[in-house]
Specification:
Elements: E1 10-12, E2 15-19, E3 32-34, H1 59-68, E4 73-78, H2 80-83, H3 89-105, E5 112-116, H4 139-148, E6 156-159, H5 162-170, E7 175-179, E8 184-186, E9 189-194, H6 197-206
Length: 207
Amino acid sequence: MADREGDFPLVEPGLWIERIGAKAFPAGLPALFLDRDGTINIDIGYPDDPDAMVLRDGIAPAIEAANRRGIPVILITNQSGIARGYFGWDAFARVNQRVLELLAEKNAAVDMVLACAYHEAGSGPLAIADHPMRKPNPGMLLEAGRRLGLDLKRSLIVGDKPADMEAGQRAGLERGWLVDGEATPMGGFSVLPLRDVRDLEGLLTAI
């Protein structure tokens, strides 16, 4: 478990690591990694209002499929809005809880949440450029892999930005799905599009 700072599972000022639920996973499993804003929920830009959260179509079935097969589901999200002073960890907590509630209504659950608030445009201790935990750096994936004993090579990642795909590649994954993107090879890492029902079926098959 993460050391808690105040009421939040912060392991350092700009890094949130939260284990959701008590489900135990054997070592050596692959995981399903997902970005949050723009991937699980519709991206509204620096989200600080839980009532504004709406799930994207089609992502809950992928999470539910991983849940049914005993595959850890891990949310990894950059949150530069915190570094920039637009909102704090309290607003992040409320928004994230609402996203998890919306997923629960679809019988889908997340097992771990990692959020990185470091950004070069931040202030104070959050003003760090190119922090190893901030995507496209692979730190959040590697940390989840260490904590859960994951097989990263067989893991999958879903995101809406090239930075998500690069983080997956650099963590040693072989495949990722880019929301509304195009199929692209990235030096041994396959980027697959996630645009429609057919693409979702491909993701479900991989899971």
